[in-house]
Each structure stands twice: as C-alpha cells, then as structure tokens.
User: What shape does this take?
Amino acid sequence: MCISTLTRVLDHCLTVAPHNLKLMALQAAAKMSVGDNDATIRLLLSSGALITDGFSSLAMLDRWLDSSFYNLVKACMNVGAHIEVSLLCCLKNPPEYGTSFQALKRMVCYDHLHLYYPLFWDVNLLECAISQHHKKGEIMLRDFVIGLMRKPEINENNHPDFVSRTQNSKKCAFLRTMFQKFVCQ
Assistant: This one.
C-alpha cells in the first residue's frame, strides 16, 4: 500500500474516531514520511493536547514526549520554528541543551519572540539567547531578555516548590501557545 492511500485511509479513520491517539500517531508518522511538516506538527500537538487535557496538566507529558518528541522537533526545524524547537528540547528530562542551543543559533525570524520569551523557564536557555543577540548586535532584544532574567520567578534559588510550579506553569503556557500557533491558525 502506498503512503498516499494510507494517509487517505487514516484521514477517514480520524473523521470517524478523531480522538484516537494511535491513529493520530500513525497519521503523523505517515505525514512526516512524505514531508508534510505542518500536518505532522498539527497532529502531534493535537495528540499532546488530548493526553494532557489541553496542556493544563503535565502528568502525562513525559508519555507524550517519548512517542512524539523527535518527529515534532524535526518537523518544527523543517518549518523554521527554531524558538519552539529550543523550548521543546528543554521539556525533556534531562534537557537536550545541544539541540536547544543550536536551534537558537539558527533563529533568523523573530515573529513570535514576544509570545515565547516570557515563557522561558530555563535560565541556561535565556543566557544562550542573550549571548546570541549580543553576537548579532541586537541590543534591544538582548536587553529585553536581560530584563526577563531579572524577574524573581526565574531565580532558581527560590523555594523548590515555587520553582517547580512556575516552571510547570510556563511549560503549559508554552505548549498552549504553540498549539494556538500551529493548530488553531
């Protein structure tokens, strides 16, 4: 059976059972194999929203990331969504800083920085962003990120419960923002 036939069958199956996570994962893999990155991102984020109750609970996040992470990162890289890749890599435990920092270095389009920078929960990522903006001579962006570093909720020396709640809140907000950008457009 060729991929186009498989995707048509899966499209039909998903109209009948739109919340079937296994079908969504299979359709995402099929879309990824033919280079349909936008559809892959939509399907993977939709499955993540189902598993995590609209990205309001991170209890099932690791399960979703285990099955979707690499395809989601690859598809986002292919569409030039480098800031999203950078933050997705920080969702992993432990964070994949190498990929995350490389994605920040590749970033050339700043369309959604105003949405994503306030959602950064990882100090290392913010420091990398400051360095990249400084190297590129982007003084206003560098100063904006430095201002974010000064916020009390980003201080890792706070009480561990406070740090954990703040990070989880920002992670959920990031995933909801990404869902809005790629799925609800």
Q: What stands out?
A: Residues 160-182 form the longest helix (23 residues). The radius of gyration is 17 Å. DSSP finds ten helices and no strands in the chain. Residues 25 and 44 are 7 Å apart (CA to CA).
